[in-house]
């Protein structure tokens, strides 16, 4: 027995360590199991996990601000929002460039919409500014083209600011050749004309992203002229003389002619376009939401907002989400409770009847499943409305005065009634399947031991049906908390749930970030309740059959 | 079968002309009359569907009698709900409450009787000790073996000191060895505590070893009510003879009856002497019944007056303590003889022609 004296690891017959051999044997099984579930796994990943993950990610995503106003955000970093003064000229200059780029790409309206969620009025400010942004620098454009018509063409600008390497690379580029080579600046130009080079960088980026024309063939932005004028007036003549390349002479002659030019004020220009730019709040909002990720949507979803002095409550008339969350939670609980009260006796009867009778009754329970949700909800509209069946009967019986018929629909009552009806099978089925497994002998045993019917039920039967109650309640509650169609149709304004608000933001206001944040909170609430349930009742105690 | 009473003592439980029908068309229990004395251990034995469990359930109060009266200690209990009858019951699958510990299970009948906590604990402890399960009070039923659950079920039925305990096939789920052990335990407890026990089973060994009296049920009637020895040795009819123990039957016709002896002509023409049990007149068809161990194959040992018949050995089976031999006797291929494995016992070979015999009183002429 050589393997008995061997002190090393256990070995398989062929000498490989037993563990390795076992792992190899099991790997095949695992791979096979994986292959079997792979289609579903992929399906779920592609159709469920990825879209939902993407959607939830939108609740914190905020790159649109830094993408659209990169230069402005950079300059704005040094501004103190509590200073009481709007940012300085440099920020407005950057804003002019960013706006020029955004207007070319038509991004400024999107950003306006985004910022409008945080500060109403931003949308129209951005729209209006987008229309006027083109004109910033128009007067210098005239001045420069007055010196030489060549300034009106992209070629001169490319030759002036681009490095030789880039010029060589972009020479003869057409849109079929893939993306245009990335812009790199001429070193002397960058040193002497920093503003202009910076603007041109944006200009080249936009041209490259557009992809139709080379930067050299694109008409220069007016704001470029403005920047150049500014640069020339502040740069030393030696530095300008040091710039080489094909446009060197063009620049020199312009510099000579421009020596007396007065640079415009960007700040005044923007304020002239829209007074909103002189408003401190505008800038505070832009700075507050400058980051790539923002808690703004989540704050909004719980009726808070981020101001300069930290997080604070929203104004009263804008606070609706907490109230809606609370309403969703308590109404779902009430609906679950109603389902339990109505469903428990039904499930009990089903579980204790003869199989043939139970099957017939079961069909009645399942019948609602085979009817369209819309039909059922509409039926409730017919029944519950003020001129509806129930009111008519009550009036006919003389229980209700014709003049003040009961309001049974378009309020919370309507939602509770209709949803209890719709969710009832989800309570009955798990209850039934659990009760089916409780042998009648337990009740008999309890009675033979001296328990009354009630004691036998409460002490012996009920505790054993708790797993069914748990499963049914979780199922009903989770379905109720996310229900949308029924509250929408019969809930009026008082009976709608948070999901109706989510739907509104998804399809009407198009504020997907807020919708995602609301949805994420709802998901979190469900998971939290699930966790609490697990702690109190134990998730092993949930049986669906 | 008018009045089957079990003799000694005043009747504690009485069934008077009890009938039960579930569907209004057929009777599951037909005119049951039975009285059980205090302290008696009575077993209801019968095949499934014979009505024995229905009788038990009527006694417990879970079924109502369609007709007739059930009395407990002289009082009719037809209208008393089960929980007021004060009858202890052990169920087929024990019905221990799975969500309670063993001690809580036992305390349950005491709790519903509003017995104080200290008293309750003492009684639970005593009951657990009684079934040697003292250490298991904190366990859940699912953590116990079948035999242990059985003991707990027994203790729970006894903990509130009922005067009557019903047991519905309580040992059915146990393996053979455990079952034999528990049979002994249950009878010991029942006799020590002096409680009246009604025990339902379809296992005849259980019925014979445990009971003071056995009521054999078939077709909704009690076929025979007698102590085990009488039941085995003097079956009242061919159903009881077939149902209890192993039995050889030979078909024949009654020739004549003279006092204690009936002469029966077997179907192959052979005439034998039998004890007439429920045959009354010549010409009647009869089923003659002989127990396999009462058949003698050793001629030398045949007692005086024993009748002999020719037989052919078909099969010999060695079973250790006994030999089991299958013979062909009077056209019956399934005639079994059991012989003790004694030093002088013959071991027969298949094909051997032998003579067998028995005493006329062991050979009972029953209804066909």
Characterise the protein shown here.
The complex is a heterodimer of chains A (545) and B (368). In chain A, 67% of the residues lie in helices and 1% in strands. The relative contact order of chain A is 0.08. With 545 residues, chain A is mainly α. Chain A folds into four domains: 56 residues, no CATH class; 98 residues, no CATH class; 121 residues, no CATH class; 215 residues, MetI-like (MetI-like fold, Orthogonal Bundle), CATH 1.10.3720.10. In chain A, helix 6 packs antiparallel against helix 7 and helix 19 crosses helix 25. The model of chain A has no long low-confidence stretch (mean pLDDT 85). In chain A, strand 1 and strand 2 form a beta hairpin. Chain B has 368 residues and is α+β, with helices and mostly antiparallel strands. Chain B folds into two domains: 229 residues, Rossmann fold (3-Layer(aba) Sandwich), CATH 3.40.50.300; 122 residues, Beta Barrel (OB fold (Dihydrolipoamide Acetyltransferase, E2P)). Helices cover 23% and strands 35% of the residues of chain B. Chain B contains eight helices and 19 strands. The relative contact order of chain B is 0.11.
Strand residues, percent of chain A = under 5%
Q: Order of strands across the biggest sheet of chain A? A: 1-2
Q: Structural class of the helices, strands and pairings of chain A?
A: mainly alpha
Quickly count the helices of chain B: 8
Give me the CATH fold name of the largest domain in chain B.
Rossmann fold
Q: Number of folding domains of chain A?
A: 4
Order of helices and strands of chain A: HHHHHHHHHHHHHHHHHHEEHHHHHHHHHH
Proportion of residues in β-strands of chain B: 25-35%
Given the C-alpha coordinates, what overall shape of chain B results? elongated
State Rg of chain B: 24 Å
Major β-sheet profile of chain B: 6 strands, mixed
What is the assigned CATH homologous superfamily of the largest domain in chain B? P-loop containing nucleotide triphosphate hydrolases
The CATH architecture of the largest domain in chain A would be: Orthogonal Bundle
| CATH T-level fold name of the largest domain in chain A | MetI-like fold
Radius of gyration of chain A: 36 Å
- The overall pLDDT average of chain B reads 88
Oligomeric state, counting identical vs distinct chains: heterodimer
Low-confidence spans of chain A: none
């Amino acid at each position: 027995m050589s393997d008995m004296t061997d002190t090393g690891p256990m070995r398989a017959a062929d000498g490989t360590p037993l563990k390795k051999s076992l792992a190899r044997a099991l790997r095949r099984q695992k791979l096979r199991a994986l292959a079997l579930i792979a289609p579903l796994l992929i399906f779920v990943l592609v159709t469920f996990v990825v879209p939902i993950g993407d959607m939830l990610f939108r609740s914190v995503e905020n790159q649109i601000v830094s993408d659209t106003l990169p230069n402005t955000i950079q300059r704005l970093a040094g501004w103190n929002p509590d200073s009481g003064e709007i940012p300085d000229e440099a920020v407005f200059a950057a804003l002019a460039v960013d706006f020029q780029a955004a207007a070319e790409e038509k991004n400024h309206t999107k950003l306006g919409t985004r910022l409008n969620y945080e500060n109403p009025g931003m949308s129209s400010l951005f729209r209006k500014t987008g229309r006027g942004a083109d004109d910033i620098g128009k007067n210098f454009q005239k001045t420069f083209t007055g010196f030489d018509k060549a300034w009106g063409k992209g070629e001169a600008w490319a030759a002036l600011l681009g490095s030789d390497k880039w010029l060589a690379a972009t020479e003869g580029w057409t849109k079929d050749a893939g993306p245009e080579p990335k812009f790199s600046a001429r070193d002397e130009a960058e040193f002497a004309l920093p503003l202009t080079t910076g603007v041109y960088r944006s200009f080249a980026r936009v041209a490259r992203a557009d992809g139709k024309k080379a930067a050299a063939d694109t008409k220069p932005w007016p704001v470029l002229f403005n920047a150049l004028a500014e640069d020339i007036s502040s740069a030393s003549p030696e530095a300008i003389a040091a710039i080489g390349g094909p446009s060197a002479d063009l620049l020199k002659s312009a510099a000579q002619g421009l020596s007396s030019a007065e640079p415009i004020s960007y700040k005044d220009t923007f304020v002239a376009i829209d007074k909103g730019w002189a408003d401190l709040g505008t800038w505070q909002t832009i700075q507050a939401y400058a980051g790539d990720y923002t808690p703004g949507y989540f704050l909004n979803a719980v009726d808070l907002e981020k101001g300069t002095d930290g997080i604070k409550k929203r104004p009263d008339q804008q606070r609706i989400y907490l109230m809606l969350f609370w309403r969703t939670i308590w109404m779902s609980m009430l609906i679950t409770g109603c389902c339990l009260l109505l469903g428990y006796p039904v499930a009990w009867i089903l579980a204790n009847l003869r199989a043939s009778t139970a099957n017939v009754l079961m069909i009645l329970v399942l019948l609602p499943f085979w009817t369209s949700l819309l039909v059922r909800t509409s039926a409730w509209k017919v029944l519950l409305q003020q001129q509806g069946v129930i009111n008519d009967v009550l009036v006919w019986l003389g229980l209700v005065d014709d003049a003040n018929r009961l309001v049974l629909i378009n309020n919370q009552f309507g939602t509770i009634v209709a949803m209890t009806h719709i969710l009832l099978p989800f309570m009955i089925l798990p209850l039934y399947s659990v009760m089916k497994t409780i042998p009648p002998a337990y009740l008999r045993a309890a009675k033979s031991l001296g328990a009354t019917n009630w004691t036998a039920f409460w002490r012996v039967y009920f505790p054993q049906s708790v797993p069914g109650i748990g499963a049914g309640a979780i199922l009903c509650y989770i379905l109720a908390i996310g229900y949308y169609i029924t509250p929408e149709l019969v809930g009026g304004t008082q009976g709608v749930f948070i999901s109706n608000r989510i739907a509104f933001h998804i399809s009407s206001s198009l504020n997907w970030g807020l919708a995602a944040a609301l949805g994420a909170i709802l998901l979190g609430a469900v998971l939290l309740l699930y966790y609490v349930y697990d702690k109190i009742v134990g998730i092993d105690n949930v049986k669906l059959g | 079968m008018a009045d089957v009473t079990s003799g000694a003592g005043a009747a504690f439980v009485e069934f008077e002309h009890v009938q039960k029908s579930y569907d209004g068309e057929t009777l599951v229990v037909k005119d049951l009359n039975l009285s059980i004395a205090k302290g008696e251990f009575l077993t209801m034995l019968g095949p499934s569907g014979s009505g024995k469990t229905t009788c038990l359930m009527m006694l417990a109060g879970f079924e109502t009698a369609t007709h007739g009266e059930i009395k407990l200690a002289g009082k009719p209990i037809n209208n008393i709900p089960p929980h007021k009858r004060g009858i202890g019951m052990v169920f087929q699958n024990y019905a221990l409450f799975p969500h309670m510990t063993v001690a809580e299970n036992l305390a349950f009948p005491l709790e519903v009787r509003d017995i104080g906590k200290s008293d309750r604990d003492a009684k639970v402890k005593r009951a657990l000790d009684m079934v040697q399960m003292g250490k298991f009070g904190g366990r859940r039923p699912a953590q116990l073996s079948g035999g242990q659950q059985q003991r707990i079920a027994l203790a729970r039925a006894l903990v509130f000191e009922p005067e009557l305990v019903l047991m519905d096939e309580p040992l059915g789920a146990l393996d053979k060895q455990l079952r034999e052990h528990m049979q002994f335990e249950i009878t010991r407890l029942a006799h020590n505590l002096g409680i009246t026990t009604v025990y339902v089973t379809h296992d005849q060994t259980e019925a014979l070893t445990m009971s003071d009296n056995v009521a054999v049920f078939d077709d909704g009637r009690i076929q025979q009510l007698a102590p085990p020895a009488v039941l085995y040795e003097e079956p009242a009819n061919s159903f009881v003879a077939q149902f209890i123990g192993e039995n050889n039957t030979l078909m024949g016709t009654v020739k004549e009856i003279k006092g204690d002896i009936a002469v029966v002509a077997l179907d192959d023409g052979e005439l034998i002497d039998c004890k007439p049990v429920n045959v009354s007149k010549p010409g009647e068809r009869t089923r003659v019944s002989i127990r396999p161990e009462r058949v003698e194959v050793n001629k030398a040992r045949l007692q005086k007056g024993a009748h002999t018949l020719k037989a052919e050995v078909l099969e010999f089976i060695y079973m250790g303590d006994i030999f089991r031999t299958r013979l062909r006797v009077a056209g019956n291929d399934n005639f079994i003889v059991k012989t003790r494995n004694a030093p002088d016992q013959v071991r027969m070979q298949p094909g051997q022609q032998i003579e067998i015999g028995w005493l006329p009183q062991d050979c009972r002429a029953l209804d066909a």
